[in-house]
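Task 17 of the worksheet. Students: predict the tertiary structure of the chain below and write it out as structure tokens. Keep your answer in the requested format; marks are given for formatting as well as content.
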Amino acid sequence: MSKPTAILQVVLDNPSKVFFSGEIITGLVKFQAEQQHKVQLLAVNLNAEYYSIKNDQECVELIYTETCPLDLRSAGEGNTEMPFSIVVRPDSPTSIASTIGGIKYRVVSILLYKEGDRVQRVEAAEYLSVNAQKQLTEEMGGQKVTAQEGWNLIPSCCGAIFVDFEVACAALLCGHSAIINACITNGTSFHIQGTSVSLIQKMCRLRDKKIIKCTVATKERGAILPGKRQVWLSDRFLIPPLPPSGVDPYFKVSYKLIMVIQKTSTKGMRLKIPIVIGNLPRSKDTQSLSTQCSLGADITDIVEGRCSNFSSDVHGFKPLYVSYIS
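Model answer:
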């Protein structure tokens, strides 16, 4: 079969290619042809796809397609630009790329035209990222955990370790910081090797309950001598661009801040605080933080997710997530 002589290109008006669920995607389909063609079909589709990976095999399933027909009379000889608009469905899940599967979105333009006695098919596609809306709520306040533990390898008379671990607010926007307060008292006669706080991301593929976990970021402190105390006072822990917390029919994404008190090279105390990561501010903050995130306004920064399990380019795209500048 001869090669098609017509060329298609999809250009999105939003250069960041990041959209909230419920937003309208606008752009142009650029048509180039050296001769007149009898066009049979010209359309633009938004394809939402779920894929899963098992035993190195990828299975793709279409979630939905939204179609925007284009005026066939505009497609002919020469260069033509045809505008389109498609709505991202309000219930669209967040774009994800992971080692066990994900959600991806493409705007695809399809052209069918007659060339002699043959029907030629030409496609052009553009990947984009969708962020499901996750608004923080007023009741999401701070959380605190307290722990006491004796030194397991020696008699209890040698003392104990006392830990207070607190997060000032357990509901956060990407780009903002969790405020951490902690007090670790070493009431034993042995060294504590070090302490750390990590943001842990957990994703569950709901159809078969397959789970992956990833350490997104970590802050570390040094050793604590016997009888001494270590204090974390209003330490700022930056939340990088990430998929928001939530559940859709395909994946569940959740986060925890975990403090580890490393007693020996193999043993440690672990204190956990669940947190919620959102992409829309609380109602009282909406006026000061406009929600024009996908347009790259001054108050926001659109950058790539930094968790390797959620930011693979194996499938031809890297999801981007809304991040506010605090």
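Marker's comment: Residues 286-314 have pLDDT under 50 and may be disordered. The longest strand covers residues 38-54.
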